Amino acid sequence: AQSVAQPEDQVNVAEGNPLTVKCTYSVSGNPYLFWYVQYPNRGLQFLLKYITGDNLVKGSYGFEAEFNKSQTSFHLKKPSALVSDSALYFCAVRDMAQAGTALIFGKGTTLSVSS
Amino acid sequence: DTGVSQDPRHKITKRGQNVTFRCDPISEHNRLYWYRQTLGQGPEFLTYFQNEAQLEKSRLLSDRFSAERPKGSFSTLEIQRTEQGDSAMYLCASSPTGTGGMDGEQYFGPGTRLTVT
Fold first, then answer.
1. Distance from CA of residue A110 to its chain's centroid?
2. Nearest-5° angle of CA B91, CA B11, CA B83?
3. For B111, which residue in chain A has the nearest alpha carbon?
4. In Å, how far is B21's CA from the nearest CA of chain A?
5. What is the average pLDDT score of chain B?
6. Most buried among A58, A77, A96, B104, using CB within 10 Å?
7. Residue pair B29/B95 in contact by the 8 Å Cβ criterion
8. Model confidence over A23-53: pLDDT tens digits?
9. DSSP per residue over A47-93, as a string?
10. CB contact set of B26 (below 8 Å; sequence gap of 6+)
């Protein structure tokens, strides 16, 4: 069965410092991997995705994520955090081998950036 | 705004009543998805349409739930005989075919928050 784990409920970081939000996944085949961000009272917004190719994926708002097949991880990173990055972040996976299109989401990680 | 829209944004209903939610996807997207999100959890997949055809349903979609997309544009999600456990945020998303294909990102609406009292 497909699954996603986000081991940290909350990540706290000071503005200007690098941030990492962790994600590990489990699929039977090759994964499609996504990161979404959710601000209060707003819908999920797409940040970036990994389909194939370069393991380092760059996305919106200066975020990037590194796909590590051996560790089955897809951690979200940003070199310098902003207070405005404070939000709820979701990692999601879809198994390329599955016929369906449903995304499987993790529980989410709340990122808090202090000034 | 050309994003995914959902109506209503909030719905409070009494247990046992029926409710219906509407989703208008991005106009050129022919794939439409419904998810449910409860507090402290990520979205959970409910069902998926390609054009007007409902191609996939989660086991979370009990007999009390029905979804339609009659003309391949907007979609409705109806819950009959609501239960307190149905209280959640119901999210709609859409995605294109073509080059986006099965690996394309899904674009989410703001959601409908259902409270069953």
1. 12
2. 85
3. A43
4. 16
5. 91
6. B104
7. yes
8. 999 988 888 999 999 998 788 999 999 988 8
9. EEEE-SS-SEEE-GGG-EEEEETTTTEEEEEESS--GGG-EEEEEEE
10. B2, B3, B4, B94, B96, B107
Q: How far apart are CA A95 and CA A84, in angstroms?
A: 32
Q: List, for residues B40-91, the tens digit of each pLDDT value.
A: 899 999 999 999 999 889 888 889 999 999 988 999 999 999 999 999 999 9
The residue written with tokens 């994600």 in the block is A23
CA gap B13, B63 in Å, rounded = 19
Of B41, B58, B91, the CB nearest to A107: B41
Contact A101 B31 (CB under 8 A): yes
Shortest Cα distance, chain B CAs vs residue A6, angstroms: 10
Closest Cβ–Cβ partner in B43, B95, B105 for A105:
B43
B116, B52 contact by CB (below 8 A): no
Residue numbers in A near B43 (CB within 8 A): 44, 90, 103, 105
**Strand ranges in chain B using DSSP code E only, listed in sequence order:** 5-7, 10-13, 19-24, 31-37, 44-50, 53-57, 65-68, 75-79, 88-95, 107-108, 112-116
What are the chain B neighbours of A101 within 8 Å (beta carbons)?
Answer: 31, 33, 48, 56, 95, 102
If you count them, how many residues does chain B have? 117
**CA dihedral of B31, B9, A5, A25, whole degrees rounded to 10:** 10
Alpha carbon of B93: minimum distance to chain A alpha carbons (Å) = 9
How many percent of chain B have pLDDT more than 90? Answer: 73
